[in-house]
Automatic annotation (TrEMBL):
Pfam families: Acetyltransf_3. Keywords: Acyltransferase, Transferase. One of its GO terms (molecular function) is acyltransferase activity. This is GNAT family N-acetyltransferase. InterPro entries: Acyl_CoA_acyltransferase, GNAT_dom, N-acetyltransferase. It comes from Actinokineospora soli. SUPFAM superfamilies: Acyl-CoA N-acyltransferases (Nat) (SSF55729).
Amino acid sequence: MTRPPVRADDLVRAIEFDPEVVAALVADARPFLAPWLPWAVEEYTVDSAAAFLLEAAAGWAAGTSFCYLIAPGGEPIGACALERRIGPTGLEIGYWLHPAHTGRGHVSRAVATLLRLAGDLDDVDHVEIRHDAANHASRAVPERLGFTLVDAEERRAPAAPAETGVGMVWRIAVRPG
């Protein structure tokens, strides 16, 4: 099983960062993230960040999760990941950005980089993005990058306060199949 590189464009493997840096970034962004991300609802501490970084290291070692911080110029402003949780030949992409950096194309560039990295993995042929139907900011990314909406009514229990429980699933091929 191949793995993506630890650095690509503005992406830096999350485990390269100090827990204090990650904790400060998330704590500051939490009011913006909490409506959509269940892990951001509770207080986010240095211990929370350290636990996340340990989990990220374990996922990288196992080849199941490749978490990056979006860090233009070396300063983290958000995070994204390729996750092996949608079947043997697919990866799911997740992302979030500090609100002070939205609207500048950072997430779209990060996701485009993740698509390129996924396409370089010899066992991956497609990528999906999933989000709640009410999360219009998350929807803009797959629309902008040419994903196809394959399910607009995925039923699931709401996991965060602003979620409706109706998920949207977007897919794109990264290798002819």
